[in-house]
Records
---
Amino acid sequence: MYDYYLGGKDNFPADREAAERALSVFPNARVAARQNREFMIRATRYLAGEVGIRQFLGIGTGIPTSPNLHEVAQSIVPDARVVYADNDPIMPA
Ligand SMILES: C[S@@+](CC[C@H](N)C(=O)[O-])C[C@H]1O[C@@H](n2cnc3c(N)ncnc32)[C@H](O)[C@@H]1O
């Protein structure tokens, strides 16, 4: 559903159907998902560029959606180290 809200391609018909049903009672769901993603990008840029953080742990990574955490961090600090963690086995696949 989150991938669908972000305009991604990695979602199933059941995801899209459930996402549309959720939108009927929470019309801002798509905006919320996109704003959540934008926050991750802003926070990573700030931490890498202003604070000097070189190692990142993404907890609850989700389905890859560009730009991902490592792309944002490494666009500022090319040798930044990133570890992703998610308890859904489909994520590493
Ligand atoms: C909304 S999605 C991904 C959001 C993504 N981090 C972003 O900022 O766009 C949330 C993810 O958290 C994962 N998750 C939920 N509970 C978790 C837990 N206890 N440990 C690890 N991952 C978890 C889910 O499997 C899902 O992939």
Note: Strands lie at 55-59, 81-85.
---
Amino acid sequence: MKGEINFSKFTNFETIKIGIIGCGTMGSAILEQILKERVFSKNQILINDKDKKKEREISQKYKVKASEINEVLKQSDFIILAIKPQDFLSFGKEVSFPKNKIVISIMAGVEASSIKKILGVKKIVRAMPNLMVKIGKGVIVWKEQGLSSNETRNVKKIFKALGEEIRVKDENLISQATLISGCGPGYLYFFEDLLLKSFERLGFSEKFISKLLAGTFFGAILYQRKEKKNPKDLIKMVASKGGVTEKFLETLKEKKIYEIFEQAAQSANNHNIKRKI
Ligand SMILES: NC(=O)c1ccc[n+]([C@@H]2O[C@H](COP(=O)([O-])OP(=O)(O)OC[C@H]3O[C@@H](n4cnc5c(N)ncnc54)[C@H](OP(=O)(O)O)[C@@H]3O)[C@@H](O)[C@H]2O)c1
């Protein structure tokens, strides 16, 4: 097919070049994992970041080449856009984006139609990963448009190296994923911190609590996955009648924890809708 990158001639993408624009938390996490999984070798990757100190550090740490933005755009077949959504409009104005490239955007709230309009590209992958891509345990919800089936298959291979990839047909699901899997690690860590602070106030040692919580959360999720049970049934297994867990949860309900969570979900959702580009 005319204009298509011919992946079939390089099963392991040996001659493909990938550009990562924005090497902050997510850009560097993706870089780390694709190198670890050997999806691409170091010499196939080009990076760019506005923050030149950060760019230099990442380039030295992972031994990948940092280049000036237009060079990255010119040389790369795939371009991963890992800049913040609020930087996208000015980025679009600053660069002249080559039209035949495959753009993989992980920017929250930036719709494929906006990417098409602002960069003038046709081959767009919109993805919502989370931080756990750094260890290959991410959740990546994604949707492509304008890609051939061969190109789509190869994008899937990249995501597979990052964790659990979930390809969707409806772009709204990417927005929903932002609130669940994108932000999810933040919610969990907040909950962990709440537990930590609450029990620390009772005089328990921070080090001891941290160790127990990390092991407990890890085991709890593995168990749930193995048993395929819903949280309500699992709670019943732990919160026996008249027990301590039941007391803890009852207190949360009395203090209207459900209402608080509903409000938090509502305001996060409103914010997610309002900031759409
Ligand atoms: N963090 C998460 O857990 C998460 C999860 C899912 C999706 N995302 C999405 O991933 C994207 C990146 O998030 P992040 O947390 O990695 O942000 P970040 O740590 O702030 O990294 C973004 C990097 O891009 C740089 N940058 C800004 N404008 C640029 C430009 N024109 N050219 C090159 N580099 C530029 C920034 O430099 P300066 O610092 O100098 O501005 C920064 O180093 C966001 O769009 C976010 O919505 C994040």
Note: Strands lie at 18-21, 45-48, 65-66, 78-81, 102-105, 123-128, 138-145, 163-167.
---
Amino acid sequence: MTLRSFLFSFLRRQKYSFLFLVLISLMWAVEQVLFPYAVKMIIDVLASYEGDRSQVYEVLAFPLWLGAGVWIASITAWRTADVIEYFFAPRFQANIREAMTQYVFSHSHRYFSEHLAGSIANKIGDMVRGAYYIVNQAVRFFFPNLIAVLATAAVMCTISYVFGAILLVWAAVHLFLCGYFSRQCDDVANEHSEIKSMLQGRVVDAVSNFITVRLFARSSHELDNVRRYQKEEIRAHRHMLLTIGKVRALLEIPCLVMIIIEVYFLIKGWQEGYVSTGDAVFVLSTTLNLMYILWRVGMEFPAFYREIGVCQQALSLIREPHEITDRKDAPALVITQGQIAFENVFFAYNKGQNLFCDKNIVIPAGQRVGLVGFSGSGKSTFVNLILRMYDLESGRIVIDGQDIAHVTQDSLRSQVSLIPQDPILFHRSLRENIAYAKPDATDEEIIAAAKQAHCHEFIMAAPEGYAAIVGERGVKLSGGQRQRIAIARAILKDAPILIFDEATSSLDSFTESAIGRSMEAMMKGRTTIVIAHRLSTLTSMDRLLVFKDGSIAEDGTHEALLAAGGHYAMLWNMQVGGFLPDSTTEKAPA
Ligand SMILES: Nc1ncnc2c1ncn2[C@@H]1O[C@H](COP(=O)(O)OP(=O)(O)OP(=O)(O)O)[C@@H](O)[C@H]1O
Ligand SMILES: [Mg+2]
């Protein structure tokens, strides 16, 4: 999608307001010629009037009315433009913001892990501001000014072709130079904007990781890091300003040449009698006016190109196709039982490095399955694939006979609850955070869910209770409190398939066993997958899958796997306090 087609798609939605603005600009352009023309007529009348001076109004009536009419029409038009803009501008910007945000939301998990959130948000902001600037400048500035030049040149031709020609040649040279150098300015502006957005991303990254920065006492390192990018940014900024300055200096030359030639021909024409006093005033005043106007037009070019550059950059957000999309006319997923099957699944985060090779596994409906294995063995990946966070290399994942790649993503994700290890909360109230999956939940429902997840107690301990704001990403809560909020959220969501990815890892044993009872209740009649490093929490599962380097090494109940004496038995025996070591190198001595 080009920037032009992007802008036009939004202008089409407000075509009447837009056309009105164009029309008003056109009226203004005509006024730029008619008003000086009325003045010229008045001067000509006065200069050659030889009758009774008390009767002069009779001959002046037409030019006076013309001037007054044009003037009034012009102010009325501009004020009407203000009114139209009142309706046009806010809606235009809102439409763009909404469309871009909506598009970005459908980007894949991978996209969000590869792009900084701050820079995505900045790009949306840039586009909202830049798109309006471009349209406004084009319609209310460039377009009417160019029309004014053409109209003035046409009227000048009625005096002598020479003046029209001089004006057009100069305007063409001026605009050509502006356009030519704007491309240069565009390049340097693009470079600057790219570096600026990288710098901005760095700042956001450092600020959003402020806890880590503080814990490691690395603020000076982060500042140095920012400074390094800052240095680059200063260089690019200066380079841009210098280029613009040079272009401005160069543009002065044709202006000077034009004025000299024009004055020469005006005097010559006056001497030879084909230029009247009024004509001379008209030519000089409109030329000076247009020179001022076109100078401003030229000066706006770099800023205009800069804005185009910024918008092009921002457009990359929506130029990048969605990695994971719904098929055309994809039906909604219908879960009747809740059986999950992996059929010949090959999956790789990076091409050529398969994490899962030909994975086949069936989790029958209603089964409670525990996933265990070393860190990095692929447990989270396994559950993320069930939510279609990534697409497979080949094979399929089937829920109740329906390939999850063939149903809508929303229907899939609204029926699978995943409670992550480190839930991040919205900077909103506790109530809103809990009711996120069910915005129309009643207070009773919310409190009941909070009680089951054992968060009611600590919520009520806060003075604002459920209205308390949790801080950006939930920083005002402890890790265990955030986990409990996430569990309450899942209880309200009431989805037929449940996945806990280390969802109770931050809880103390007492709270964990208390919540365990609520979780047992939640699991009833639901297909459930629980990932836990604390193996003792998984002993009552119907089945355990032991992950090893992406493959499922063992499959069975706790007792059966212990008896088999394999990888699981080794892990179990290693659990001193109930936790797994991080890798096989930490194996306990035999
Ligand atoms: N977004 C990603 N891009 C590239 N590689 C990834 C990505 N996420 C995970 N991996 C890699 O895939 C492998 C499996 O990761 P996964 O998160 O599934 O492990 P895990 O078993 O859940 O570990 P843990 O117990 O620590 O949570 C790891 O080697 C990891 O580095
Ligand atoms: Mg994990």
Note: Confidence is low (pLDDT under 50) at residues 584-590.
